[in-house]
Amino acid sequence: MSKIAFIGGGNMSSCIFDGIKRAHKDADDIYVSGPHLEKLAKFADKKAKITTSNVEAAKESDIIFLGVKPQMLTSVLQELKDNGIDFSAKILVSMAAGFKIASIRRLTAAPYIVRIMPSTPAKIGLGITGIYFENGIDDKNKKLISSLLEPLGMLCRLNSEEGINAIGALAGSAPAFLYRFFEAVEHECIRYGFSQSDARKIVEQLGLGTSSMVIHNHETPISALREAVTSKGGTTYEGLQQMTAFKFEEMIEEVFKACMKKTHLFEEMF
């Protein structure tokens, strides 16, 4: 098993780390670095080597997962370069939104760079992880990196960095939009007299049942599933009419456009 390091011990690093440990029982040589050792204790409990030195973690690894925020990545990469880290035989795997491969290479001269975009349901093995390999990554290493990410859920191979931007919005950001819908339904349940506990249960079953209908009726268009719930002139129809009046589809389009616009602004910054 290759030596692996996580620079940054946040939520997504934790998800990937746990997935690797589940799928690769021999993956004991993993470093995790971060500014506060106490926040890395959960990794140490799972036999990771923890350190406050990004340089130490990078030096001891073959594959480096960059798990810091885009705004911090420049200084982290500069620190590694200034301390003489040789990237010539290492694979950098970046999960930073809007931070292009060209920017990483400019800071490190690393020849092997992969960009990924995970989503938070990866924590329970039900995420969507976009992955973009540059041409310099050979098939053996593509298979290796893919094997590290497959325990997170669906792995979506992309043909361009713009694809990474898109999957970041459509799969990475979208859970927050669904959560907001669930919050609104929960609020309405309470407004109509249900307890907080029952409202939560209703939302949970609503999400589970509706998603399961989509999954178990794979050959049926989602529009047809919607139509099956809708009787002309009935209550559901009236509710959908309100969604149309408030231009629901146009709103969703603008939501994803806003995500993409912000990503492109990050690209210009870095």
Outline the structure in words.
The chain starts with a strand and ends with a helix. The protein is 54% helix and 14% strand. The protein is elongated, with a radius of gyration of 22 Å. The chain folds into 2 domains: 156 residues, Rossmann fold; 101 residues, Orthogonal Bundle (ProC C-terminal domain-like fold). One of its GO terms (molecular function) is pyrroline-5-carboxylate reductase activity. It catalyses: L-proline + NAD(+) = (S)-1-pyrroline-5-carboxylate + NADH + 2 H(+); L-proline + NADP(+) = (S)-1-pyrroline-5-carboxylate + NADPH + 2 H(+).
The strand line-up of the biggest sheet is 3-2-1-4-5-6-7-8
The residue fraction in helices comes out at 40-55%
Count the beta strands: 8
Q: CATH topology of the largest domain, what is it called? A: Rossmann fold
Indicate the structural class.
alpha/beta
Q: State Rg.
A: 22 Å
